Amino acid sequence: MTEVVIPNTYEEWLILVKSKVPEVLSKKSIEKRIQVLSNSNNSEAVEFRDLYGDEHRQRVVSWFRRALRESHDKN
């Protein structure tokens, strides 16, 4: 059975995303994830909340927002 890793910090999350699904960090993908996870009525957001809790969903949205800001800072 594969161990599920749930990051607790932005840094842990960023390392995990970069190693598992780096394409999620494109500007377009980040904006889409923010849109989806920010909408508490969206089925993906509801599923995410049901799996990980609303506090973690909100934390992940904030991490995507930070990643978007940091990507703008690099350009």
Attribute tags:
single chain, about 80 residues, mainly alpha, about 70% helix, about 0% strand
Overview of the structural elements:
The structure is a single chain. The protein is mainly α and 75 residues long. It has helices spanning 10-20, 27-38, 43-52, 54-74. The chain has a domain at 23-74. The radius of gyration is 12 Å and the shape is globular. It starts with 9 loop residues before the first helix and ends with a helix.
Percent range for β-strand residues: under 5%
- Using the CA coordinates, give the radius of gyration: 12 Å
User: What is the string of SSEs from the N terminus onward?
Assistant: HHHH
Q: What value does the average pLDDT take?
A: 92
Short description:
The chain is mainly α.
List the helices and strands and how they pair.
Blueprint: H1 10-20, H2 27-38, H3 43-52, H4 54-74
